[in-house]
Amino acid sequence: MNKQKVIVFMPAHNEEESIGSVISRVPRSFHPAVDVEVLVINDGSTDSTVEVAERAGADHIVTFKDNRGLGAAVREGLKSSVELGGDIGVMIDADGEYPPEQIPDLLQPIFRSEADYTMGSRFLGTINGMKIHRRLGNYCFTALQSLLLGKWIYDGQSGMRAFSRQAMESAEIIHDYNYAQVLTLNLVRKGFRVKEVPILYHVRTTGRSFIKFKSYMSSVLPAIIKEMRRPVKKVYVEEQAHELHVEEGTESFIK
Questions:
Q1: Any idea of the CA torsion for 73, 88, 112, 199, to the nearest 10 degrees?
Q2: Dihedral through CA 6, CA 104, CA 120, CA 201, nearest 10?
Q3: Does 239 reside within a domain?
Q4: What's the confidence (pLDDT) of residue 227?
Q5: For the chain, how many structural domains are there in total?
Q6: What pLDDT, on the 0 to 100 scale, is given for residue 214?
Q7: Which of 97, 104, 163, 255 is the most exposed place for a label (fewest CB within 10 A)?
Q8: Phi, psi dihedral angles at 176 (to 5 degrees)
Q9: Structural domain boundaries, residue 49
Q10: Radius of gyration (C-alpha) of the chain in whole angstroms
Q11: pLDDT tens-digit series, residues 197-253
Q12: What is the CATH number of the domain that holds 121?
């Protein structure tokens, strides 16, 4: 039986209070044909993020000496996942807001050859504790992405996503501050199939977000314009590259 390697990568900047729990909750044995490894992208942390991640069972850690930004960390996560032999990459925030237990749900459309790129959707699932200004900001940016792509998206800012190997190899993130909008625009414009999966979401209870509204607006909007002005080449997508066959005891996962 040929196994597929899933690399779960976590961008992390000063997340010592939450990253251990997130790593320990990553499902490792949900299918006999899937091996799971955890990769942490330590984005210039000055606390004990690395030590906590190692104790919690991280298989790989890449460290930036200085804080480069979330976009740079996600770019490195995709690159390193490919270099580590990952067939599929899963990105999840290290702050505990997104449910690691639902990683298998995020992978199902890829294993069923229905998608090459999936996003955990808070607005299709459950949102607990998100402030109204953040909701409105999410609605506005998601509506803008939907308009630009001609395809309705419910949660364009999700911090939980999965990528086929081909999507990881093709993805381009053109700025270091953030990745959420430009990454989806880039992949969909290249022909990759995107699908959203409902998830349960809880606003962080530890640490603090390093995303500020003013800098977010001034950085992300120009990046969206730049991405849409860039010419991209359509990719021949290998749509069945990661298809898993149903085996006894795994029907509920694949179906």
A1: -30
A2: -120
A3: no
A4: 85
A5: 1
A6: 58
A7: 255
A8: -85, -25
A9: 4-231
A10: 17
A11: 999 988 755 555 555 555 555 677 787 888 888 899 999 999 999 998 755 445 555
A12: 3.90.550.10
* 89: nearest Cα among 72, 71, 99, 76: 76
Q: Would 253 be classed as within a structural domain? A: no
Does some domain include residue 236?
no
Report the pLDDT value the prediction gives residue 225, as an integer from 0 to 100: 81
Instruction: Assess contact for 85 and 9: CB atoms under 8 A.
Output: no
**For residue 25, what is the DSSP state?**
T
The span from the CA of 94 to the CA of 156, in Å, is 19
Residue 238 lies in a domain: no
Q: In the block, which residue shows the tokens 């320990």?
A: 24
Residue at 41: amino acid letter: I
Instruction: Give me the torsion for CA of 108, 111, 112, 117, rounded to 10°.
Output: 70
What single string gives the DSSP state of each residue in 126-172? Answer: EEES--HHHHHHHHHHHHHHHHHHTS--S-TT-SEEEEEHHHHHH--
What pTM value is reported for the model? 0.87
